[in-house]
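Re: the request from the purification team.
They wanted to know what the chain is likely to look like in 3D before they choose a buffer screen. I agreed to run a prediction and write the result into the notebook, where they can find it.
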Amino acid sequence: MKKAIRIVSAVTALAAASLGTAVAAGADRGPALSESSDMGVTIAASEATAHVGDLVTYTITATDWSGNAQGAFVNDLLPASMSLVSATATPDATGDVATATVSTVTDPSQFSDATGVDAGPYVGRTLVVFSVPVLGDGSFESVGDAETMQIVAVATRAGATMNEAQVGALNPDPNTADNYARAPVTFS
């Protein structure tokens, strides 16, 4: 059974703030939030195996399959044995770029877990949240548009790791099967 930890309060607050700032600045906020979105995410690691101290780049791609996403975000909770080096995003075809906010999880109430797993072990881990800019018809230019983000991290101890990425938006996504992705790396 797949366990899904969903980051709720910090991510929703960041996405809402991003959307609110754009609307206050006169941006067209696009479709009503009652319209559903269909987001998807993939993640790939530059190495499947590496040594402690080696840099690993995780490439995350978020896609808006609906063209309706509002206040889109991507989050990545780094494994406990990894230290963040950098978090960047690649400008899309129009020059827009997602922005990264980095924090350390200090409160397990930042998480909700539908499987009943204790979220307390996530305290002290690094959380990277990318806010995708709100564009004319939503967070992306049109159906199928994608944003690419990179996280570079270094392992601080040996063992198997699993880095997970999640994508979401302020408006509902009835197809959540592709909203989570994983990339394993083993360090020796």
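For the purification team: The longest strand covers residues 145-155.
Please add any questions underneath this entry.
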